[in-house]
Amino acid sequence: MPLCAVPGCANPGVHLFPKDPTLKKKWEKAIRRKNFVATQHSRLCRNHFQESDYVGESAYTGHPQICKFLKKGTVPSIFPWSTQVSTTPTSRTSRYMKRSRRILDFIQPSVEESVPEPSSSAEIEISTIEGPIEDFTPKTVSVSTQCGSSFGILSLEAMRGNPQAIHFYTGLEKYEKFMLVLDTLSPMCNNLNYRGSKVINVCIGDQLLITLIKLRRYMPDFELAFLFGISQTTVANIFVTWINFMYEIWSLINIWPSKELVQYYMPESFKRGFPNTRIIVDTTEIPITRPGNPVAQQVTFSSYKHQNTVKAMIGATPGGLISYVSECYGGSVSDRQIIERSKLINMCDSGDSIMADRGFNVQDIFASRDITINIPMFLKGKTQLPGVRIIQDRKLASKRFHIERIIGLAKSYKILKSELSPYYVPLASRILFVCAMACNFRESIMK
Question: What pTM did the predictor assign?
């Protein structure tokens, strides 16, 4: 970064010279630098401006801004030949305490401190000071909570005792379940590589809350920014970063259960009629905004939904655990093509059975591995099916309907039912996987 243009000042420059020629000349005259003409890279540091030169409260949120912006028409006025920047211990102490309060507001609590009692308070002692400070005695600052945006309407701490709000905004049943989800992402979530700049004004719990609210309610970034007292850019930065992070962490978990576990948790109705069922599969489609590219329009257009979509396959055990989520493909892809690109043939064991809809006519793919496909029978030129086969197909449909309920539960996250913007379409596979994993934290798929 270029240094400050004021003679004798070695601080990094922050504020660019204004583009207005009249105001620019005033700045050049104020710094008293002989024959100096400011370029597009010339800057001044903050030490040459007064506090009153900066914008106070934000016009959008009504709260003090985190980043400092100069008011229109401001001219630098603090120089070595005019007013000296105060270096007294009192002013240093004041500046230090301002920095300390910001650090205390956004400090990350440990696992033991993440669920404090409502009446408890944490005593934090300031014992280290940046730079030499004369005649300054460290003081103890009491902080009642270390999570939650300082200026926001909504926060995790505000919803702690309200399970209805937790369920409405996140899809999880209660605060303890939310903390369980957060624990599965700890401690890695404390050292994230953000897509944009590092987020320091929102605690980790609220960042996860913002992500789950975006998935569950699909609120616009502006609405989330207003509720949490942050900028829209920060909301987008948090959501994209956490979706990638949650996918990378949860994809390391082997959600494909062993055959013994599937048999152990299999309902009695399955054991009587379809004892070898390993997984129930079906496809689902997520609507997207119509692409501008004609080729992309053709690839993503679904003849079933009559709109542009991305399509994926979800599989669940008879006990209700989502055990397989495929990548998302263009809406024009067939069920058979998704099966051919999936890893199911290598994941199932000999003698297993896959329960599916009539569109999964893929017996030839699995026959070599001794894996059967349970699908309703085709007419094959007949006017009607035998009565015995109709009864069997009805039993099959009553069991296969479980996957419809599970997909319906996943689509309670409205981001999977609303049109994905072009900004989120590249993340469709990861968004679907995260929503499916969030459903696995639920107590049951039905009341």
Answer: 0.67
